[in-house]
Amino acid sequence: MGDKRFLELIIKEPKELSDSQKKAVLSDRRHIRIIAGAGAGKTETLTRKIVCLLLYENVKPASIVAFTFTEKAAQGMKSRVYDRVRQLGGEEICAKLGEMYIGTIHGYCSFLLENHFKFGDYGVLDENQETAFLMRVGWELGFGKNGNYTQNCRTFLKNLNVVYGELIPENNLKKKAPEFYKCFKKYEEILDSHKRLTFNRMINLALTNLQEKQNVLSDVKYLIVDEYQDINRAQEKLIQLIGLNSEIFIVGDPRQTIYQWRGSDEKCFEDFAVKHIDAETISINENRRSGRQIIEVSNQFSDYFEDEYDHLDPVRKEEGAVYIAKLSDNIHEAKWIADQIEKHVDAGKCSYGDIGILLRSVNTSAPPFIDIFRERNIPFIVGGKVGLFRRPEIQTMGKLFAWLYDKGFWYESQWDRENKEEGEELLYSALESWNDGVPSCKLHSEVIKKLENWKKNTLDSKYESFTEVYHELLVLLNYLNLDSEDPNHAVIMANLGRFSSLLTDFESANMLGGRQRNWERDLKNLCWYMNSYASGSYEEQPGDDIRGVDAVQLMTVHQAKGLEWPLVFVPAMNARRFPSSMAGREQTWMIPRNMFDAEKYEGDIESEKKLFYVALTRAKDVLVVSHFGTLNGRNSGESTFISEGLRDSKTTKLSAKDELPLHDLTSSKISDEILTYTPSEIILYRKCPYFYRLNQIWGYEPGFKERIGYGNTLHFCLQQAADLIKNEGYSPISAISTAVDENFYMPFVNKIQGEKIKEAAKRKLISFVKKHETDMHNIQEVEARIEFPLQKATITGKIDVIIHDGDQLEVRDYKTSDSVITEAESAMQIQMYSIGMKILGENVTKGSVAYLSDAKVAYVEVDDSRLEETKKQVERHIEGIKNRSFKPCTGEFCNKCELTKICRWKKR
Fold first, then answer.
1. Angle between helix 466-476 and 447-459 (nearest 10)
2. CA 134 to CA 141: how far, in whole Å?
3. Does 2-114+204-283 match 298-381+549-652 in CATH topology?
4. Of the four, 17, 428, 730, 850, which is 20 to 30 A from 563 by CA?
5. Is the peptide bond before 702 cis (omega within 30 degrees of 0)?
6. What is the mean pLDDT of the chain?
């Protein structure tokens, strides 16, 4: 155990923990279950637990694994841990915190598969990319036999994720769902042929491999899991495997189980105490977020649940306020809420960013708000999976790309097949949407001729990629008139960047395997992808990406989980809207319902109640729940959650004639989090801050090229060759030949091209190792993961090779050529790694960059004075990113920049 003064500081600073929090942090039980209510300070509790392990119990950072539900939550927790360790004087431990894992379960499985189970050359398809890929290969699986192809693809994915998440044994599947089983196995074969993983399959592969090789987890002694009520059975099994030789500390709140529809199983939280009979259960019921009236109303609603739960205890002295407003119809409801927002902002009581509007469905309930906010110039950001396509500028993009396909069409919504636009109507409707949503780039009739020419050029194969087509379109639409420093323009540019990501998701999935470009086919498939999937699945750029924009957050309750606002509106609390009329409706399944808990996925009133409870507990100072009397001229009753769940509650009733009283609101502070950067990101910022913003923050992608992945596969082959030399006694040349023959893979070229490129690569690598054979024998470590603190940030990356000849330690990076990155930039990368190694206590004496194309090695200065100079440069760049300083750097880089077409600063 460490110094008891440390323990006192951990418990008492920056604010003293409550008795229940102290109990959680200090418990020495092997299995601990924390029931932490909304606003109970669970992140702070988890942070202090980790800091206590590090500084008081003196455990090694590498022995701790902490799972969070989202990457954002991981970043927040990591930031707090770094801050506290540094403040308490643990500089030595702070340097090694990168050895600790804080992140999502998917991220950890990816790490295990890449580093321990030979999946280092696999790419990962996210949900959007996987859907695009399945819509391409679904014909091979027979999904086109009985019509409604895209729906069959989506139903297959839904069932596939049930199989993975519920751990349904394959032999059961083969017996009871033989047709699905055939598709399932064929799909996995197709994925493997392209060396691609999917999110849910990653967990299953990690489980399978860990059961055979459990020693991989031998260093893990402490496992911490946040949001345990939202895990599924596969994740539970993974946690049990890791927990065989480690202590487990879980935190959750069964009152906030809102993801059953995608497989979360709240029984896992209950079962933890049954499976671990030694488990200590600690309840943290103090709520530090909300005013007393908000807590009282939330507690009353929780009594409406089927199960009984402890009430939250308010910590704040302020009363806060809860209102229930009834308006005449949904349009007047949106207008009334807009009035109250303007009133509070104009009175200086809050900013737009202090306000959240939480909806059961953005698709169903957001349109009136979007229209009225745009009309009144109230800045807003739309969340929810249909958020992106609610923006007129994105509607423009969707319609114009649909117009490129000769039978193109556009549905107003996936759920509204009546309003369909086709042919030339798409063109004129698109221009109307653009002029409506982007008035600063207003278009006139002469643009039509230019767009017709753009269409002809696309169909005549004048462009090499969708990105090139897109950038040309943006220029025609006067995109260069947008000013990224204008907050309203920044939102538009960010969303157009998100559309760029959509195009890349689609294109990369469609070009896997070296597929030949066919614009007619690809435009047809893109049209269907957008209309049947993307328009209901892509969100706006997340608020974090445009942090400086002061805007009302309009989002689903699901998205709001873990967030808070001083003023929260929960509108459209009407029957059939909230609770959703879809809750409990039987769905179509490809596997028998008796093989899994189908009802869990289909939802019920109880899960809807918990969702509303989450909405209530997001408010800090003022909560306004509202409903309307009529919808499209028909009567619409109030939600039972109001008439029954909030009956006799301590709320103030308001009508259309009433105004929301002005309240003093606590301001929302943007915490100065410790963010993580890779050396590549720092170098991109160094090249051009404006490029960094477009590419790294807003998602504007360089054009697709079939040789994407060449550098990655060379690196992987070198990694495997080093392993053969070190562990199996291969000679360098035979190691390279074997590694290239077994592992070289280019995802976007066909087999014939791939073989030619492979043989050329083999010759290149053999030439390199012949010239540097001694270095190959002296390799100490390859793909060495490193993470270290620098200023208010951490730098993370992988060192290609660490060479040790007995006297000197050398950090080396492989480059395929010197045309993409300059020698100075390569040197900076090596120097960043050297700084990290020295912080971690390693005495780096040499640095080098190996250029594989001409077998040369360029040495880099890594003496203390040079590293100190580099450290100052990097810190300046980090400061620039944090301060949102994204000035253009016009100069030499412009000639190589792949975004010059859409850069208003490029000299023309």
1. 170
2. 9
3. yes
4. 17
5. no
6. 91
Rounded to a whole number, what is the distance in angstroms from the first to the last CA of the chain? 66
Six-digit token string for 767: 């030439």
Q: Say if residue 78 carries a ligand binding annotation.
A: no
Q: Write out pLDDT tens, residues 410-459.
A: 997 766 677 889 999 999 999 999 998 898 898 888 999 999 999 999 99
Question: Would the annotation count 560 as a binding residue?
Answer: no
**pLDDT tens-digit profile of 835-859?**
999 988 888 999 999 998 888 999 9
Q: Residues 812-826: pLDDT tens digits?
A: 999 887 667 888 999
| pLDDT beyond 50 at 543 | no
* pLDDT recorded at residue 279: 94
Averaged pLDDT for residues 453-472:
96
CA 552 to chain centre: 21
Radius of gyration of the chain (CA): 28
Cβ count near 262 (within 10 Å): 16
Quick one: fold of 673-900? Lambda Exonuclease; Chain A (3.90.320)
**Cα-Cα-Cα-Cα dihedral sign, residues 166, 167, 172, 177:** positive
Beta strands 793-804 and 552-556: pairing type? unpaired
Q: Residue 412: name the closest of 428, 378, 389 by CA.
A: 389
Q: What is the largest CA-CA distance in the chain?
A: 85
Identify the CATH number of the domain defined by range 298-381+549-652.
Answer: 3.40.50.300
**For the chain, domain boundaries:** 2-114+204-283, 122-193, 298-381+549-652, 390-536, 673-900
344-381 b/e with 16+ CB inside 10 Å = b?
bbeeebbbbbbbbbbbbbbbbbbebbbebbeeeebbbb
Q: How far is CA 784 from the centre of its chain?
A: 25
Residue 540 gets which letter from DSSP? Answer: P
Q: Is 42 flagged in the annotation as binding?
A: yes
What's the Cα-to-Cα distance from 393 to each of 97, 121, 379, 442, 495, rounded to whole Å? Answer: 43, 38, 15, 12, 8
pLDDT score at 500: 95
- pLDDT for 13 equals 86
Q: Label the pairing between strands 280-284 and 286-287.
A: unpaired
pLDDT at 214 over 60: yes
- Per residue in 277-290, is it b (16+ CB within 10 Å) or e — as a string? eebbebbbbbbebb
Is 37 known as a binding-site position?
yes
Cis check: omega of the bond before 679, within 30 degrees of 0: no
Altogether, the residues listed in the chain come to a count of 908
Strand partners, 410: 421
Q: What is the pLDDT of residues 480-538, one digit of tens each?
A: 999 988 878 888 998 999 999 999 999 999 999 989 999 999 999 999 999 999 988 88
The C-alpha atoms of residue 478 and residue 282 are separated, in whole angstroms, by: 59
The answer on whether 40 is annotated among ligand-binding residues is yes
